[in-house]
Write a structure and sequence with these properties.
By secondary structure, this protein is of the alpha/beta class. 45% of the residues lie in helices and 14% in strands. It is built from 24 helices and 20 strands. The longest helix is centred in the C-terminal third of the chain and has 22 residues.
Length: 725
C-alpha cells in the first residue's frame, strides 16, 4: 500500500465524517489509506517525447515538531489458554481496564486514548505482545517521548531467567513461548527511542524484573535513555489479588491506580512522579499483605526517569509540604444488587448486597459518597469522613423507586410524540415539552437525555451536550445517557471525552454494540485505525443489523495500514461496504427509516449537516460508495472504481473527494491506454472527463490540497489536448 498523505485524509474525516493459593494474612478472601497520488498516472515523470507530458505533483511532508507524548502498552491476562484451572487468575483483565481508564482520564495520565494500546485475554498472544513491543512502540515513540508498559498476569523464572507469560504460553516450553525479560530490556534500551520509560509489572515473580541477577545489565546501565521499573513483588514472592480491593484487583495494581489518581502526591505539589508513586505503592502493598509482598523499584533514587510527571493535579497543590497522613478505608455495603458507587463524583465500582465493596487507600478527610441504581432515587450525595489508618463502614440504602409525577410524564410523553415526527418545528416543540417535564421533576434523567437529543437534531450541539451531561449527573449508571453524551461530544469534536464516556459504558456493559459503534467512529476520526477496526469488529459482532457499524468498520479497514500488509484488508472492507449499502437501502425494508428518522441523535455522529435526516442518509450512502470506489482504485480495478465514485456523486454531487478520485481514475485509464503508444495519444475523451472532475474540485473548494493538485493536472491535461489541435 502506498503511504498516505495525512492532510488529505483530514478532509475525508470531516466530510465522511497472579492468583495464588496463598492468601495475604489480613483476610481469608485473599487475583491501527488515504487519497494518494498514484505513480501510474499523470504524476509520473516523462521519459519519451511520445508519452503525454506530465506534472509531478509535490508530495506533502508533514512537519514533525518535537512534541513530547506519552505512549502506553497495557496488558492484562486472567485466563490462559494452556494453563490448568488452578493456575488461572481472576482479576488481571480488570486490572488492565483500571490502568487504561486512569491513563486516559482527565484526572490521571491524560493520555490520548489512541496512544494507549490494550491487549487483554486472548488478544495478548505472544505474537501480539511481540508486535506491540517490537513494532508499534518503536514506530511511534520519538526521542523526546515517554513510554509506559504495564503487564498484569503470570511471570515465570526458569533456570535463572525470567519471563512474562502471554495468553498462549506453553507450560512445557516456557522459554520459547513466553517473552524474556532480557529481550524486553533490549527492546526498551535499543529499539524504543523514548526519553523516559516506565515499566509496571504485576506478575508472580515479577520482582525478577528489577533484580540485577535476572535482568540484562543494560537496563541498569542506561546512559541516554532512562527506565524506571516498579514491580509487584520481590524475587521469590508472589503477587496477590483478591476481591477486597475495589471489588477485585491485584493488590499492587489497586494501589498503583490509587496513586495515579493523586493519592501518591505526598508533598501536595499536585504532581505524581515515579518516586512518590513507588513509595506510596510499596508502603500500602506491604501493609495490605502483612509484609508478605514487597513491590520493588529500580533505580532506587531520583533520576531522569524518576523526574517524569506521571499525573498532575493542580487543584491538589498547596503551599504546605506537610507529610501525608496515613490512608484510610471505606467499606460500602448496600441493601440491593447492582448499586453504582461514586466517591467524590467518580465511579469506584458496583456493590451487591451479598458482597461489600472495600475501598482502601483513601486520603483522610471528608469524601462525597453516593449510591445509584437505575430506576431508584439515589442514596446521597453525602459526606463521609475517612479516618487515617481506620476502616469505616458506609451503609447505602436504595429504597425509593422513582415515581414520576403525572404532569412530568404527560409532558415527556407529548414530547416523544413530537420528537418521533421529526422536522425542525417538532424538535423545537419537543424540547420545550421535555424541559417542562424536567422542571417538574429534576431527577427525570430521560427527560434531560431527550432534551439533548432534540437540541442535537436542531444543530444546537452546545445546548444538547449540556443536557446530556445533566442526564449523566442525575443518573451516572444510565448508559443511554452516556452514549447520547458521547454522540454529542463526537458532534462537538471532543473525541477524547467521548472515548472516556464510551469506555465507562463498555466496562459496565461489554456487550453494548452501540458504544462499540461510536468508539469505532471516535478512533477513526482520530486516525487510530487499529483501535477503530477492533471496535468496529466488536460492533458488527454485537449489532450485525446496524448498517452504520459496517460502514465505520469498512472505512477503518480501508485506511488501516500496519506497515506489514499492502491491500490485504481491502476485500474485507468492500464486503463491509456492501453490507452497509444493503442494510441502509430503504427499499430493502431493513429498518432504514427507523434508523434515520427516529434516531437522529446517533446515526450521523460527527456530521454537521442536520437540515433533514435524509441528508444524513445521502451523506453516508455517498461515503460508502466513495469508500468502495477507493478500494477498487487501490486494487487497480479502475472501471469498477469509476462506477462507485459516480454512485457517490449521485447521492452527493458536492463530494469533493469523489470528484477528485474520478479525475485521478480517468487520468489513470488514459495513462494505461497510452503506456506503449508510439504515436499521438488516444482516448482524449478520458482526459476531457478527468479535466471536468478536477475543475469541479476547484469550484467546490479552491483552498484544499486536492484543488492545488487539480490545477497541476489541468495544466498537464490542457498541454496534451493543445498538442492535438
Amino acid at each position: 500500500m502506498k503511504k498516505l498523505i495525512p492532510v488529505l485524509l483530514a478532509g475525508v474525516w470531516c466530510a465522511l465524517a497472579g492468583q495464588q493459593t496463598q492468601t495475604p494474612p489480613p483476610t481469608t478472601d485473599s487475583q491501527h489509506r488515504d487519497l494518494n497520488l498514484v505513480t501510474d498516472h499523470p504524476n509520473k515523470p516523462t521519459t519519451t517525447d511520445t508519452a503525454p507530458p506530465t506534472v509531478k505533483s509535490p508530495i506533502h511532508k508533514p512537519s514533525n515538531p518535537s512534541v513530547p507524548r506519552w505512549y502506553a502498552l497495557v496488558v492484562g491476562i486472567s485466563h490462559y489458554k494452556n494453563l490448568p484451572e488452578k493456575a488461572q487468575l481472576k482479576y488481571s483483565d480488570r486490572d488492565a481496564d483500571s490502568v487504561y481508564t486512569v491513563l486516559i482520564s482527565k484526572e490521571g495520565g491524560q493520555y490520548p486514548a489512541e496512544n494507549v494500546h490494550v491487549l487483554k485475554e486472548e488478544q495478548a498472544t505472544y505474537a501480539n505482545l511481540k508486535d506491540q513491543l517490537e513494532n508499534w512502540l518503536p514506530s511511534v515513540a520519538k526521542p523526546n517521548d515517554n513510554v509506559l508498559i504495564y503487564f498484569a498476569g503470570h511471570g515465570f523464572v526458569v533456570d535463572g531467567h525470567s519471563y512474562l507469560a502471554p495468553y498462549d504460553i506453553d507450560p512445557s516450553n516456557i522459554a520459547s513461548t513466553s517473552y524474556p525479560m532480557s529481550r524486553l530490556g533490549d527492546v526498551l534500551t535499543k529499539n524504543i527511542p523514548a526519553k523516559q520509560k516506565v515499566l509496571f509489572a504485576d506478575a508472580c515473580h515479577s520482582g525478577a524484573i528489577a533484580d540485577r541477577a535476572h535482568l540484562d545489565q543494560e537496563l541498569l546501565g542506561l546512559a541516554n535513555n532512562s527506565l524506571f521499573v516498579l514491580s509487584a513483588s520481590k524475587a521469590g514472592e508472589v503477587s496477590f489479588e483478591g476481591p477486597l480491593w475495589g471489588g477485585g484487583h491485584g493488590i499492587f495494581t489497586y494501589y498503583l491506580v490509587k496513586g495515579y489518581e493523586g493519592q501518591a502526591d505526598d508533598v501536595h505539589d499536585g504532581i505524581v512522579d515515579p518516586m512518590n508513586l513507588s513509595n506510596y505503592v510499596k508502603y500500602n502493598v506491604a501493609q495490605a499483605t502483612a509484609d508478605r509482598q514487597h513491590p520493588t523499584s529500580e533505580p532506587q533514587n531520583t533520576s531522569d526517569a524518576g523526574d517524569a510527571v506521571l499525573a498532575y493535579y493542580p487543584g491538589r497543590a498547596t503551599a504546605s509540604n506537610l507529610p501525608q497522613p496515613k490512608v484510610g478505608t471505606l467499606v460500602i455495603e448496600t441493601n440491593m444488587d447492582g448499586v453504582e458507587v461514586t466517591i467524590d463524583g467518580k465511579s469506584v465500582g458496583v456493590v451487591n448486597k451479598a458482597n461489600a465493596l472495600r475501598l482502601p487507600g483513601l486520603q483522610p478527610g471528608l469524601h462525597t459518597v453516593q449510591g445509584n441504581r437505575e430506576g431508584y432515587m439515589p442514596d446521597g450525595p453525602r459526606d463521609q469522613e475517612v479516618y487515617p489508618g481506620q476502616e469505616t463502614t458506609v451503609s447505602i440504602r436504595i429504597l425509593i423507586a422513582k415515581v414520576r409525577k403525572k404532569a412530568a410524564l404527560d409532558h415527556f410523553n407529548h414530547g416523544m410524540e413530537l420528537y418521533n415526527k421529526g422536522y425542525e418545528q417538532n424538535y423545537k416543540a419537543a424540547a420545550e415539552e421535555f424541559k417542562a417535564a424536567l422542571q417538574i421533576d429534576p431527577t427525570y434523567n430521560q427527560a434531560a437525555t431527550f432534551t439533548g437529543r432534540a437540541y442535537r437534531a436542531l444543530n444546537d450541539y452546545d445546548t444538547a451536550n449540556q443536557y446530556f451531561k445533566q442526564a449523566v449527573e442525575i443518573e451516572p449508571d444510565d448508559m443511554d445517557a452516556r452514549i447520547s453524551y458521547a454522540g454529542g461530544l463526537l458532534d462537538g469534536g471532543d473525541l477524547d471525552e467521548a472515548i472516556r464516556q464510551l469506555n465507562f459504558v463498555t466496562l459496565h456493559d461489554p456487550n453494548n454494540g452501540t458504544a462499540a459503534y461510536l468508539l469505532s467512529q471516535a478512533f477513526f476520526r482520530k486516525g487510530a485505525y487499529e483501535q477503530a477496526v477492533k471496535a468496529g469488529r466488536d460492533s458488527v459482532r454485537l449489532i450485525p443489523n446496524k448498517a452504520e457499524a459496517h460502514l465505520w468498520l469498512a472505512d477503518s479497514l480501508r485506511l488501516y495500514d500496519d506497515g506489514a500488509k499492502t491491500v490485504a484488508d481491502l476485500p474485507t472492507a468492500e464486503t463491509e461496504y456492501s453490507q452497509y449499502l444493503a442494510l441502509s437501502n430503504f427499499a430493502s425494508g431493513a429498518g432504514g427509516k427507523f434508523n434515520y428518522y427516529v434516531m437522529p441523535w446517533l446515526i450521523g455522529a460527527g456530521s454537521k449537516k442536520r437540515a433533514a435526516q435524509t441528508d444524513i442518509w445521502k451523506e453516508l450512502r455517498a461515503q460508502a460508495n466513495f469508500g468502495y470506489c477507493d478500494c477498487e482504485y487501490l486494487l487497480k480495478h479502475y472501471d469498477s472504481a469509476i462506477k462507485y465514485c459516480e454512485g457517490a456523486l449521485s447521492y452527493d454531487p458536492q463530494n469533493l473527494y469523489a470528484q477528485y478520485r474520478l479525475g485521478i481514475l480517468y487520468s489513470a485509464k488514459f495513462n494505461a491506454l497510452n503506456t506503449s503508444a508510439s504515436s499521438g495519444p488516444s482516448g482524449l475523451d478520458l482526459l476531457v472527463e478527468a479535466r471536468k472532475h478536477f475543475s469541479s474540485v476547484i469550484a467546490l473548494n479552491s483552498q484544499v490540497d486536492q484543488a492545488n493538485y487539480s490545477r497541476k493536472y489541468i495544466q498537464n491535461i490542457d498541454q496534451v489536448l493543445g498538442q492535438q489541435k
